[in-house]
Write a structure and sequence with these properties.
single chain; mainly alpha
Length: about 90
């Protein structure tokens, strides 16, 4: 699949760094929760909090990206309409 004109693809290094930081942060937090000197129900509560935080973060990131892309598409459609109007109503024709 080709990227549309005007978009910038991420480099392989950036993708690897993003995934590595995600895995390390979730792994480190999980190890920290498991090693806490508290009852298992407290660890479970904190683990569920971690899971919901990760899910909510992904949802916010996707929603933000979708809103941005929708605005870009709307702007391109509006620009095309203006160009069409200007070309149809050119004063020198």
């Amino acid at each position: 699949m080709h990227a549309p004109v005007g978009t910038q693809a991420h480099s392989t290094a950036w993708v690897i760094q993003a995934w590595a930081s995600f895995i390390l942060s979730i792994g480190g937090m999980s190890i920290g929760i498991l090693n806490l000197p508290v009852d298992n129900w407290v660890k479970g509560y904190m683990g569920m909090g971690l899971a919901f935080t990760v899910g909510a973060t992904m949802s916010v990131a996707k929603t933000t990206r979708d809103n941005y892309e929708a605005k870009r598409l709307t702007a391109r459609v509006d620009e095309a309409r203006v160009e069409k109007l200007l070309s149809e109503n050119h004063p020198l024709k």
